[in-house]
Amino acid sequence: MAQNQNHHHRKHAHHPHASDSQPPYWALALRAKALRNAAVIGFQMHHYASPAAPSPTRTKWIDATLGDKQSKNTIRLDIYEPKVGGKGAKTGRPGMIVFHGGGFVLGHGTDDARWAAAANETLGAVVIAVSYRCAPENPFPVPVEDCASSIVHLAQNAKAYGVDPTKLFLSGFSAGGNLAFSSYLLLRSAAKWGYDLPCDPPSIRGIIVFYPLLDYSKSRPEKRDACANPEFTLAPSLTTLFDSSYLPPGIDLVDPRLSPGLVSDELLDTLPAVHMTLCEYDMLLAEGLDFQKRLEERGKVVSVRQVPGEKHAWDKPMPLYPKPSVKVEYDAALDVIKGYLSGNGSTSEFGSSIEVGI
């Protein structure tokens, strides 16, 4: 009940940028382009570090089929296939859709190549990494709609991918973690926002996310100040670029497609099993823990691991070489998915909260 009151209390929160304080579009676009170029170089170095990250098995472009900015051959899918072995190895495999991070402004599906490779090897899963359209060129809700389009695409074409449509998972990092939840919620309540789906909402077995952004109703300074080590959080110049690019002026900040952590109890109850990996020195830690509490209170299957002494996106460059804790956390998340697949994905098995020391 307290949660519902909190939700209603926040329902009139709006993006605070007045038109005179919002940076002009051209300035946002220039900064975004420069940041994207730098990120490409950083990830190239990251991918070449030993062990080298794999390249996608193949790449496919699909249509954006939802919302006001529908477009042909717009969303890039990087597909990572597991090594084939044994009869029937190309049918009935789990499918994992991965949404990259980057503040809704930068990034590519290939950023999470090592996570894809781990899922290939450990689960025998086909991994589809989605490069959705980014802000400021495509602000909210376009990235959410693109991610939802990709989920519908995989569900409708599961056989062509050799995927069992009853074994679909969503995953994401940072902004991509937000999009994993937001796109799922969009599909579960499409009519509310005027979307016309070509099929029933696909069945999703679990949502596995790393350091997700879940609550836009709290300001960045508020989140930064609440962090155990504010100096370790993302720079204000960066988060201002991200938020100014992604959030249209006047947007309702508690829209669950934007702040999935504030979703109504009714819609929260539709969520599948959830696993979250959070970082101790991340301004997003508190909202992750708040969401965990909400899920537990509603009796949902949820497991959480907190990586001590680490910052947001600790698994991405730099440093050049992946930290040992990255493999530990990836393996732990994959073990949870194994439990979901075996039918043992209960809160009693995985625990509601696990803290790990690396």
Automatic annotation (TrEMBL):
Pfam families in alphabetical order: Abhydrolase_3
UniProt xrefs under InterPro entries: AB_hydrolase_3, AB_hydrolase_fold, GDXG_lipolytic_enzyme
Superkingdom per UniProt: Eukaryota
Keyword entries, A-Z: Hydrolase
Alpha/beta hydrolase fold-3 domain location: 97-314
Gene Ontology terms, MF aspect: hydrolase activity
Region feature (Disordered): 1-22
Extent of Basic residues compositional bias: 1-16
Protein's name according to its UniProt entry: Alpha/beta hydrolase fold-3 domain-containing protein
